[in-house]
Amino acid sequence: MHNALPAAISNSEFFALYQPQISVADGRIVAAEALLRWQRPGVGIVQPSEFVRFAEENGLIDPIGTYILQMACREAAAWPDLRVAVNVSQKQFARPNLADFICEIARVAGLPLNRLEIEVTETAAFPDINHAIAELKTLRARGVLVSLDDLGSGGATMELMAQLPLDRVKIGRELVGKYAEAEGAARLRTLIAAAQKSGLGVTAEGIETQAERDFLSDLGSDQMQGFLFAQPMSAQELQALMGAR
Ligand code: C2E
Ligand code: MG
Ligand code: MG
What we know:
Layout: H1 4-10, E1 14-23, E2 29-40, E3 44-46, H2 52-57, H3 61-77, E4 83-87, H4 98-109, E5 116-121, H5 129-141, E6 145-151, H6 157-163, E7 168-171, H7 173-176, H8 182-197, E8 201-205, H9 210-219, E9 223-225, H10 235-244
Parallel strand pairs: 2-4, 4-5, 5-6, 6-7, 7-8, 8-9
Antiparallel strand pairs: 1-2, 1-9, 2-3
Helix pairs in contact: 3-4, 4-5
The structure holds ligand C2E and magnesium ion (MG) (2 copies).
């Protein structure tokens, strides 16, 4: 990794797959999440679980995140009226003017800011929470949507939900998969109720079965993402799917 990842950055070995997000009310695709992949020569496609943590810990996530943001904005600009959601690492908030930087990337790509969504996770800590809050506020004021990703995976969920300026929360597979267990169901109920009380949209991700879909939709999740609806796919495949619909 120490040698391969910096080389991968110089050689632009990254690309994005896009996974549709579906509106529960009418089943329409409303957005797609850009999911990072590394096309590693001689190895094949490497999943983010194998290198994002390393990149974050070694100062490499900023160039990778910038590259994928540029690519996602460019590819999404060609889609008809569909939002693109991009994962932004807490480490990227070390950049002094992250909001300006992101908006400029979207502008150059020709993507209207109201078709861009930023997903931040609670899995690690922000370098400076007050700075992060200010940058997220700026993004929202300009029309960019902000989501808190992987709800229920860390310990500070409720705190972050109250602190961060957000439009939406995303409940991760880890918790969705526990819907049939009493403790999991109770936790889902509490989190979704809290999000709704704050006026936030609720995306349930990692939906694999009809039973999960029904349970989360009954609890009030208004958008869903998961293998039940669609796998992550190339930009071309997504465009073909949109055309077919
Ligand atoms: P995430 O943002 O929570 O993305 C959702 C993950 O769930 C994706 O894994 C997706 O492929 C997977 N998934 C979707 N539907 C299902 C399902 O029905 N069942 C199951 N079991 N899994 C499902 P992926 O692509 O491996 O990404 C893993 C994580 O890597 C992401 O979680 C995100 O935290 C991180 N990541 C991905 N792309 C980027 C990026 O561009 N930048 C940064 N910083 N992190 C990224
Ligand atoms: Mg995400
Ligand atoms: Mg997630």
